[in-house]
Amino acid sequence: MGNMVEIRRLRKVFGSIVAVDSVSFTLSQGEVLGFLGPNGAGKSTTMKMITGFLTPTGGTVKVNGYDIQDQPIEAKRGIGYLPEGAPLYPDMTPQSFLGFVAEMRGFRGEALRQRVADTVKKVNLGSVVHQRIETLSKGFKRRVGLAQAILHDPPVLVLDEPTDGLDPNQKHEVRTLIKAMAQEKAIILSTHILEEVQAVCTRAMIIAKGKVITDGTPAELEARSPSHNAVTVRVKTGTATGVLEILQGLPGVKRVEALEEEEGIQGFRVIPVKGQSILAVISRCSRDRNWEVVELSVDRGQLDEVFRSLTMPDQALT
Amino acid sequence: MGRVGIIFKRELAGYFVTPIAAVFIVIFLLLSGTFTFYLGSFFPRGQADLLPFFNFHPWLYLILIPALAMRLWAEERKEGTIELLFTLPVTLWEAVLGKFLAAWCFTAIALALTFPIWITVNVLGEPDNGVIVASYFGSLLMAGGFLAIGSCISAVTKNQVIAFVLSVVVCLGFVLSGFPMVLDFFSPWAPDFLLQAISSFSFFTHFTAISKGIIDLRDLVYFLSVMAFWLFATTLLLEWKKAE
Questions:
Q1: CA separation for the pair B124, B144 (Å, rounded)
Q2: Closest CA to A123 of A135, A141, A97
Q3: How far apart are CA B139 and CA B134, in angstroms?
Q4: Mutate which of B20, B88, B90, B244 to test chain A, going by most A C-beta atoms within 10 A?
Q5: CA A114, A117, A120, A125: dihedral to nearest 10 degrees?
Q6: Distance from CA of A64 to the nearest CA of B (A)
Q7: Chain-chain contact of A79 with B81 (C-beta, under 8 angstroms)
Q8: What is the mean pLDDT of residues B210-230?
Q9: How much is the mean pLDDT over chain A?
């Protein structure tokens, strides 16, 4: 399957503010792309242009092979979109609202009824379909928003902060739903929650001041963290002496931090040079010296460190 | 059903699931009755026609139609649903037209519910029913004009109060443009053709012409082009100010 979304030099200017500055990328089936970035970075504006709500100042968006400006109707048929905050018509019930969306999407009669019923089931709306939307809880509203986005089984899904404001269980549910659909769709989602990127995305893009700063797998991003491959060692005090100095002397070790001592166990955090793997060296060393090791673990890296260092370069990490 | 029809249906149903329909229709009937019988001296005149009823329609619409039109787009903006609507496979025109037609149809329902007064006048005397039909038709056309103006102004703001007040002012201008209070402002300096152009913009003049029972093509074209113009302006403004 080729590229479902093709974005070239996308740009949006509001007055004197450049909200999105020459963003380009492509997305194919099976990819879940996470947009990361501080508030006001241009994530939502980019999504609004991809879905055809905003007209770009420059650049092109192609969805499913259709240019969103030249063939907006055809392009929009292939997109399911959850706008930020999941806006809905408050006076309608989920049933009538989804019926309206299904009709706008071209479903009629029995096919429409079936489609709405299936979607209601998929997002677990069953108990509230006949309540007015304004009386629903935030979690249910978000599910109605998701339902209208996936109702027509679109090849491209654009979800602006799909889990914002949900409780941990609801977040988990939404993520499970996204993961279940990931195989057959191309999905773009924006989020502030870095763990979400690790949990559902196959690709992460950090955007700041309207520009794409990095684009790679979540693992690649993590690898850019200073604490990538850092090793935490916890040793029973008394069984070992001079641990800090010995660790410091091992090859590939940049520095060692002593952690707080707890109940007779002393911890150390070993930071490697340029993220190289030092676990083997440390584990051999502790075996040779007969340290009583309680814990030995490797840090994959902290996405939030990477995020901060990339989006606020002036305040470099200490 | 086309997409205009689907939007029309949703909008029209929207009036009836909220108290808007009940409140609007009751107030409309109450006010039109009061105007006709008290201000219009329906009985003392002793004539079997509905002039006192229709004469007040421009003033009645001036207040009530902007109240109906203010939510058309301002509410979509405020709730953020405008983003939902325009990312569905629908064109601006289809959405603008569907919403407008729903509001217009709703006005037609309210207008149709004034039928008891028609019955009354037929019981009391022998009115010219042709004139009455023409007047109803003219009244509906005028309501369409007011609604199109309201739709356009509602499209530029998310604040319904602002939409209402501005619509009333613009509509007032259209009602009064044949009256001295507007013309006097222009007559000292404006050339004759401009004065005539301004006075020909009056809803009042065109409506009065139709309510005499003669449906002149010019009056018809006038109201239809007013609607087309303001609805076209609505689409332009929506496109232009969608982001805000």
A1: 31
A2: A141
A3: 8
A4: B88
A5: 170
A6: 14
A7: no
A8: 90
A9: 89
Beta carbons of A75 and A52 less than 8 angstroms apart = yes
Whether residues A92 and B14 touch (CB distance < 8 A) is answered with: yes
Assign residue A85 a region: left if phi > 0, alpha if psi is -120 to 50, beta otherwise?
A: left
Q: Which of A12, A44, A73 to mutate against chain B (most B CBs within 10 Å)?
A: A73
Q: Which residues pair with A235 in a beta bridge?
A: A266, A293
Mutate which of B7, B84, B241 to disrupt the A interface (most A C-beta within 10 Å)? B84
Give the integer Cα–Cα distance in Å for A272 and A255.
Answer: 7
Domain spanning A231-299, CATH architecture: 2-Layer Sandwich (3.30)
Sequence-separated (6 or more) residues with CB below 8 Å from residue B56: B32, B35, B36, B39, B40
Count: domains in chain B:
1
DSSP A28-76: ETT-EEEEE--TTSSHHHHHHHHTTSSPPSEEEEEETTEETTTSHHHHH
What pLDDT digit, counting tens, does each position of B31-74 carry? 988 888 888 777 777 777 788 888 889 999 999 999 999 999 99
Q: Using beta carbons and an 8 Å cutoff, which residues of B are at the interface with A?
A: 1, 3, 6-7, 10, 13-14, 17-18, 79-81, 83-84, 86-91, 239, 242-243
Which of A54, A92, A103 shows the shortest C-beta gap to B242?
A: A54
Q: Residue B145 is part of which domain span?
A: 3-240
In angstroms, the CA B200 to CA B207 distance is 11
DSSP run (H or E) holding B109: helix B92-112
Q: Are B237 and B153 in contact (CB under 8 A)?
A: no
Tens of pLDDT, residue by residue over A112-160, are: 999 999 999 988 888 899 999 999 998 899 999 999 999 999 999 999 9
B92-112 helix and B20-34 helix, angle to the nearest 10 degrees: 50
Q: Where are the domains of chain A?
A: 3-218, 231-299
Common-topology check for domains A3-218 and A231-299: no
Reply yes or no on domain A3-218 having CATH 3.40.50.300. yes
Judged by CB atoms closer than 8 Å, whether chains meet at B88 and A105 is answered as yes
